[in-house]
């Protein structure tokens, strides 16, 4: 917790994150493991809420105040013109006028950054809600997860002592180059639009650099994901969450040395020294077991194992910030949707549950969620720029688990999906739109699983 | 073929399997199953000793530079794959697999690496990545139009020991002489993802016939496969300027 005392005028702030990067540890010998002797309660030192309230007046210079005002004006104008929530444009303008605005807005607040391939938006909302049991918290709830989105979120309420910010995996290093968050949550890493983002190893290396720039932050990380273990293992303060991984194809080989790891479900230890760390929190079928062995029922409104993992991350963050378990958990439990994910919406005269799946790992999670149910199922796949144009990944997803069910498919790439399902032994009907697909189902509360742009379109149509 | 089961080797999916390459194995196994023929998937990982020699068909996918170099080193070990090819066993190499099975390739750092030389094709980095739908007219009898998705930096030149898998109608392909892919004997290489066998069932059946050594009973194409092929090859017409 150095952010309350950091001098905002330090010269390094104008440097690029790469220039500010802390030198990598030069150790070529055995890998240093997290201290196994550390007791569970040492992870949970209680930290008081910041004494110093973030202040708008005081030391802010004219440039900063102008940037903030212009940013807020642009945001509200954009909102009134119906151009969206306005966060992005306001944040971008304000950042252009005052490049140091992000670090200035973060000063005096306790900020939790949330990153990973899947679950960022939902977990960020959980963290924000859990924080609100203590004091006001801001959040980039609309999913604008780069620096301009962070500025916009922090601008919404200057007196909020807490912030929960979702950050794009490749942008965390830019954030920690500007200020040190109170906590950093690393959920998982897997392939996601490979032709656009770059491979998983590159992302893991970028996260590792980002953490090296924030030695005082509490890192809360998924110990069952070898790529996350690689990114976080050298950090001095890590709380390890055992959430399991369903998607393994990006974790067959050691992220550090490339040697074969094999089954990640056991206590693996690579020849280079990288190893699965002991868990501080273990997610179970109904809740979570803490370091002392106590089981906590989660009883979430949100469905599935994946959300128990997300909730565990949020709970761990809230406790690190000095929150109490019961009120934090009560607020996490009440969340029933996150930016439309898991929401029950009206579409084509029907009530449906909307689920987002945008890469093989999240498809597996969502299929797992619906595989036990016999509600009607609609799958929607697009391949626009934001989705990635190549849909070969459909063959990485184990659609075989839907065998015996009849599903409806729609979207730009409905035919690719239908062919995939044919080879998986799943009966599928191709429909021209999601509404037509729903017309082909009877009764129940249908589940609609859609990838990124398809999800966005369905959500927009449900609200008009 | 051991007994009545066709042994399909999925080679190094941990190194080369970036773009749904496992899908080609799913397609082959299912097309056999629909005809009442059993199959066995043999997954060869980089932790194994070497590639077994006794499989009926080998599938090699694509990956990054480092993975390709490691794959060549692994595949050379024991010489199982080369001996299988000498016996006429079919091999399908996709994207990075094409480069690995060729005579040589140059990685992003400018270094030249020797390939396995199972097809006469040599690859160097191009000026930009070729990304998008690709359609070709196949040179193989009865296969017809091929459709796939390409995403590669490499540009491949064919030597006299290989011929192209198809002539490019749309897309980049090898980047030379309107050629796409490389064929020598029963070794077929292509830049096409999709996966290629899901979009092109005739190519899948040709490989299976080579693997089994006899003609297969014809299988009517399900309507969505026909429709997908029409949709993917028609884009070319619609987008033509
Ligand atoms: Zn290692």
TrEMBL record, chain A:
Enzyme class name: ligase
Keyword Ligase annotated: yes
Residues that bind Zn(2+): 254, 257, 270, 272
Pathway: Cell wall biogenesis; peptidoglycan biosynthesis
Mur ligase central domain mapped to chain residues: 114-317
Span of domain Lipid II isoglutaminyl synthase (glutamine-hydrolyzing) subunit MurT C-terminal: 356-454
Key word Zinc present: yes
Catalytic activity: beta-D-GlcNAc-(1->4)-Mur2Ac(oyl-L-Ala-gamma-D-Glu-L-Lys-D-Ala-D-Ala)-di-trans,octa-cis-undecaprenyl diphosphate + ATP = beta-D-GlcNAc-(1->4)-Mur2Ac(oyl-L-Ala-gamma-D-O-P-Glu-L-Lys-D-Ala-D-Ala)-di-trans,octa-cis-undecaprenyl diphosphate + ADP; beta-D-GlcNAc-(1->4)-Mur2Ac(oyl-L-Ala-gamma-D-O-P-Glu-L-Lys-D-Ala-D-Ala)-di-trans,octa-cis-undecaprenyl diphosphate + NH4(+) = beta-D-GlcNAc-(1->4)-Mur2Ac(oyl-L-Ala-D-isoglutaminyl-L-Lys-D-Ala-D-Ala)-di-trans,octa-cis-undecaprenyl diphosphate + phosphate + H(+); beta-D-GlcNAc-(1->4)-Mur2Ac(oyl-L-Ala-gamma-D-Glu-L-Lys-D-Ala-D-Ala)-di-trans,octa-cis-undecaprenyl diphosphate + L-glutamine + ATP + H2O = beta-D-GlcNAc-(1->4)-Mur2Ac(oyl-L-Ala-D-isoglutaminyl-L-Lys-D-Ala-D-Ala)-di-trans,octa-cis-undecaprenyl diphosphate + L-glutamate + ADP + phosphate + H(+)
Example GO biological process: peptidoglycan biosynthetic process
Keyword terms, alphabetized: ATP-binding, Cell shape, Cell wall biogenesis/degradation, Ligase, Metal-binding, Nucleotide-binding, Peptidoglycan synthesis, Zinc
Pfam families, alphabetized: Mur_ligase_M, MurT_C
GO molecular function: acid-amino acid ligase activity; ATP binding; carbon-nitrogen ligase activity on lipid II; zinc ion binding
Source superkingdom: Bacteria
Annotated catalytic residues: 390
SUPFAM superfamilies found in the cross-reference section: MurD-like peptide ligases, catalytic domain
EC number(s) stated in the UniProt entry for this protein: 6.3.5.13
Compositionally biased intervals (Polar residues): 13-28
Region (Disordered): 1-43
Subunit annotation: Forms a heterodimer with GatD.
Family statement drawn from the similarity comment of this UniProt entry: Belongs to the MurCDEF family. MurT subfamily.
Task performed by this protein: The lipid II isoglutaminyl synthase complex catalyzes the formation of alpha-D-isoglutamine in the cell wall lipid II stem peptide. The MurT subunit catalyzes the ATP-dependent amidation of D-glutamate residue of lipid II, converting it to an isoglutamine residue.
Protein name in the entry: Lipid II isoglutaminyl synthase (glutamine-hydrolyzing) subunit MurT
Source species: Saccharopolyspora aridisoli
UniProtKB/TrEMBL annotation, chain B:
Name of the protein in question: Lipid II isoglutaminyl synthase (glutamine-hydrolyzing) subunit GatD
Pathway: Cell wall biogenesis; peptidoglycan biosynthesis
Any GO MF annotation of the entry: transferase activity
List of residues binding substrate: 129
Active site: 95, 193
A biological process term (GO) from this entry: cobalamin biosynthetic process
Sorted UniProt keywords: Cell shape, Cell wall biogenesis/degradation, Glutamine amidotransferase, Hydrolase, Ligase, Peptidoglycan synthesis, Transferase
Function statement: The lipid II isoglutaminyl synthase complex catalyzes the formation of alpha-D-isoglutamine in the cell wall lipid II stem peptide. The GatD subunit catalyzes the hydrolysis of glutamine to glutamate and ammonia. The resulting ammonia molecule is channeled to the active site of MurT.
UniProt xrefs under InterPro entries: Class_I_gatase-like, CobQ_GATase1, GATase_3, Lipid_II_synth_GatD
Catalytic activity annotation: L-glutamine + H2O = L-glutamate + NH4(+); beta-D-GlcNAc-(1->4)-Mur2Ac(oyl-L-Ala-gamma-D-Glu-L-Lys-D-Ala-D-Ala)-di-trans,octa-cis-undecaprenyl diphosphate + L-glutamine + ATP + H2O = beta-D-GlcNAc-(1->4)-Mur2Ac(oyl-L-Ala-D-isoglutaminyl-L-Lys-D-Ala-D-Ala)-di-trans,octa-cis-undecaprenyl diphosphate + L-glutamate + ADP + phosphate + H(+)
Keyword Secreted: no
Enzyme Commission code: 6.3.5.13, 3.5.1.2
Family membership noted in the UniProt record: Belongs to the CobB/CobQ family. GatD subfamily.
CobB/CobQ-like glutamine amidotransferase domain: residues covered: 7-200
Signal peptide: none
Alphabetical list of PANTHER family matching this protein: DETHIOBIOTIN SYNTHETASE, LIPID II ISOGLUTAMINYL SYNTHASE (GLUTAMINE-HYDROLYZING) SUBUNIT GATD
Listed Gene3D superfamilies: 3.40.50.880
């Amino acid at each position: 917790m150095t952010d309350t005392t950091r001098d905002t005028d330090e010269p390094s702030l104008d440097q690029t994150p790469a220039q500010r990067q802390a030198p990598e540890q030069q150790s070529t010998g055995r890998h240093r493991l997290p201290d196994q002797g550390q007791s569970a309660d040492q992870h949970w030192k209680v930290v008081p809420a910041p004494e110093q309230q973030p202040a708008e007046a005081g030391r802010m210079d004219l440039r900063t105040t102008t940037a903030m005002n212009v940013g807020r004006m642009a945001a509200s104008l954009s909102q009134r013109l119906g151009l969206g929530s306005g966060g992005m444009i306001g944040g971008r303008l304000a950042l252009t006028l005052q490049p140091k605005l992000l670090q200035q807005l973060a000063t005096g607040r306790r900020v939790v950054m949330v990153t990973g391939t899947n679950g960022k938006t939902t977990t960020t909302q959980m963290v924000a809600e859990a924080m609100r049991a203590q004091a006001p918290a801001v959040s980039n709830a609309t999913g604008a997860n780069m620096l301009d989105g962070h500025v916009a979120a922090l601008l919404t309420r200057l007196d909020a002592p807490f912030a929960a910010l979702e950050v794009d995996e490749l942008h965390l290093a830019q954030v920690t180059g500007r200020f040190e968050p109170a906590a950093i949550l690393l959920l998982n890493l897997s392939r996601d639009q490979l032709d656009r983002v770059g491979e998983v190893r590159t992302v893991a290396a970028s996260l590792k650099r980002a953490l090296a720039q924030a030695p005082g932050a509490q890192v809360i990380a998924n110990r069952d994901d070898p790529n996350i273990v690689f990114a976080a293992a050298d950090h001095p303060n890590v709380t390890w969450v055992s959430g399991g991984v369903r998607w393994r194809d990006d974790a067959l080989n050691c992220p550090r040395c490339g040697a074969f790891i094999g089954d990640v479900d056991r206590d693996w230890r690579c020849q280079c020294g990288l190893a699965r760390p002991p868990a501080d929190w273990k997610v179970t079928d109904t809740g979570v077991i803490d370091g002392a062995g106590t089981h906590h029922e989660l009883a979430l409104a949100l469905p599935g194992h994946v959300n128990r993992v997300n909730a565990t991350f949020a709970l761990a963050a809230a406790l690190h910030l000095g929150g109490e378990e019961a009120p934090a958990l009560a607020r996490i439990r009440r969340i029933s949707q996150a930016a439309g994910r898991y929401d029950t919406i009206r579409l084509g005269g029907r009530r449906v549950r909307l689920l987002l799946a945008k890469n093989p790992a999240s498809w597996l999670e969502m299929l797992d969620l619906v595989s036990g149910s016999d509600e009607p199922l609609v799958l929607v796949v697009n391949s626009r720029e934001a989705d990635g144009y190549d849909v070969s990944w459909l063959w990485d997803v184990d659609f075989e688990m839907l065998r015996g069910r009849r599903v409806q498919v729609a979207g730009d790439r409905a035919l690719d999906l239908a062919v995939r399902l044919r080879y998986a032994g799943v009966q599928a009907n191709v429909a021209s739109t999601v509404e037509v697909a729903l017309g082909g189902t009877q009764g129940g509360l249908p589940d609609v699983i859609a990838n990124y742009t398809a999800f966005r379109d369905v959500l927009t149509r449900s609200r008009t | 073929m051991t007994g009545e089961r066709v042994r399909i080797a999925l080679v190094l999916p941990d190194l080369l399997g970036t773009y749904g390459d496992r899908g080609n194995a799913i397609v082959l196994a299912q097309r056999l199953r629909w005809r009442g023929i059993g199959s066995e998937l043999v997954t060869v990982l980089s932790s194994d000793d070497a590639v077994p020699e006794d499989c009926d068909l080998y599938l090699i996918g694509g990956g990054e530079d480092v993975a390709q170099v490691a794959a060549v080193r692994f595949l050379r070990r024991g010489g199982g794959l080369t001996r299988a090819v000498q016996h006429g066993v079919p091999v399908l190499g996709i994207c990075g697999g094409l480069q690995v099975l060729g005579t040589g390739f140059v990685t992003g750092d400018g270094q030249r690496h020797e390939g396995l030389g199972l097809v006469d094709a040599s690859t160097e980095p191009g000026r930009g990545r070729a990304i998008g739908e690709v359609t070709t007219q196949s040179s193989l009898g009865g296969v017809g139009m091929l459709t796939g998705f390409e995403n590669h930096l490499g540009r491949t030149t064919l030597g006299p020991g290989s011929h192209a898998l198809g002539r490019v109608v749309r897309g980049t392909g090898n980047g030379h002489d309107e050629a796409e892919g490389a064929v020598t004997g029963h070794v077929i290489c292509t830049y096409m993802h999709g996966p290629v066998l899901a979009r092109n069932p005739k190519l899948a059946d040709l490989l299976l016939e080579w693997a089994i050594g006899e003609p297969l009973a014809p299988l009517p194409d399900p309507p969505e496969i026909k429709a997908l092929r029409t949709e993917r090859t028609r884009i070319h017409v619609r987008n033509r300027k």
